[in-house]
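Good day; I would like, with your permission, to put a structural problem before you. I would ask you to consider whether the tokens describe a fold that such a sequence might reasonably adopt. The full record is reproduced below for your convenience:
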Amino acid sequence: MGNDRLQGTLDMLILRTLHPRPMHGWAIAQRLQELSEDYLRIGQGSLYPALHRLESAGWLDAEWGVSEAGRKAKFYRLSKAGRLQLEREVSDWEGFTAAVGRVLQEA
């Protein structure tokens, strides 16, 4: 996926990845790569600014813990506001993709 398209959806992808459980940054990137069958590779230069932006917006809560590798890591989880934002973004995304699909069928 091109960076321009990914940039617009990265927040939603992060929020969705954190929906079931808290994760640290590297695990989020790995999970996105795994779920996308290696199509999405999110670099640190994109991931960490997005995580900080989402935390500042109040959509993520964070606390320090120890990763699976035994390293100190910041773990992120969805806040109540983050769950509501995820619902809005998924709804918007579904409307957008449906509209694009209709155009592509007619073109």
Summary: Helices lie at 3-17, 25-35, 44-56, 80-106. The beta strands are 23-24, 60-66, 72-78. The chain has a mean pLDDT of 91. Residues 80-106 form the longest helix (27 residues).
